[in-house]
Design goal:
295 residues, alpha+beta, Rna Polymerase Sigma Factor, Chain: A, Nuclear Transport Factor 2, Chain: A, six-stranded mixed β-sheet, 6 strands
């Protein structure tokens, strides 16, 4: 039988997984996990029938409160807000990576920003963490009927914004590596061929470094924008494919300093969206290259 601390340690990735998907920030998710630990430590273990259910419920309730506060601060965020990227374990199987990418990708987390905190919680608990409506109703302190309606409305709200294509992990990797190779060779023609004509690029500089004030649309324009610094500072540049948020992306270094993390969505043949995280505060974890496994 696990001790109380050991049981929490074994389930902490689950707590982090819930909190990170709720908040889009691993730093904030770790704060939630710490608060859950404090409450766990002060709880009578005999009163807990199911440790995982208790931890998920507690993490969700705390994350809802944290998200309410975060949304107020994000109203004053400079530029476009994108989630903090987090490393993915290289030892994960293709099936595990594909599963993670479907509900952990930067694009998916960015889309979740459309939902109010309780709607986001209900949607994630049901569609990602496979919680039944009785459990969701208990966590949110609402009726099952209200929770069903909330999840239904969340799906409608997200329907037009979520990726239209389910692309196999190996297909995504092949396409991204071809694009990285074309970028490394400064082959603009090949880069443009790999971009969808209506592709979109979204960047987050957090007001700390420069970034696009609004999305850029057009595959040719995006290819030219990404190639420009490669030509100007080629001797200082290093592009590194890396697994984060369940998918292969590109890390761009200048003078061995991590300048950006780029995640990609594709239709299986061409790139449809690139999300570029340039905010140094959100890149610190990637720069430190600390592997994290979210369940």
């Amino acid at each position: 039988m696990d001790t109380f601390p050991d049981l929490f340690t074994s389930l902490r990735p689950r707590v982090l997984g819930v909190a990170y998907r709720m908040l889009g920030s691993m730093a904030e998710a770790e704060d939630v996990a710490q608060e859950v630990w404090l409450r766990w430590n002060g709880t009578d273990r005999a009163a807990i029938e199911n440790a995982e259910a208790w931890l998920v419920a507690t993490a969700t309730r705390i994350a809802i409160d944290e998200l309410r506060m975060a949304r107020r601060s994000r109203e004053h965020y400079v530029g476009i807000w994108l989630p903090e990227p987090v490393p993915t374990e290289h030892s994960d199987t293709p099936e595990r990576l594909h599963e993670a990418a479907s509900d952990l990708s930067v694009a998916f987390l960015a889309v979740l920003e459309r939902l109010a905190p309780e709607a986001r919680a209900a949607f994630l608990l049901h569609d990602v963490f496979d919680c039944g409506y009785p459990e969701i109703a208990r966590i949110l302190e609402k009726s099952e009927a209200a929770c069903r309606q909330t999840v239904h409305r969340a799906r409608i709200r997200l329907r037009d914004a979520r990726p239209l294509y389910v692309v196999p992990h190996h297909t995504h990797q092949q396409l991204l590596r071809a694009f990285a190779d074309a970028l490394d060779k400064a082959d603009l023609k090949s880069m443009m061929a790999l971009m969808h004509s209506s592709a979109e690029l979204i960047g987050d500089g957090g007001g700390i470094v420069s970034s696009l004030p609004k999305p850029m649309v057009g595959g040719a324009r995006i290819a030219q924008l990404l190639l420009a610094p490669t030509l100007r500072r080629r001797a200082e540049l290093r592009m590194v494919p890396a697994l984060f948020n369940g998918r292969l992306g590109l890390l761009r270094f200048f003078d061995e300093h991590l300048e950006s993390a780029m995640s990609f969505d594709t239709d299986g043949e061409r790139i449809t969206q690139i999300l570029v995280q340039r905010n140094p505060e959100k890149l610190a974890r990637m720069a430190a290259n600390q592997p994290l496994a979210l369940r």
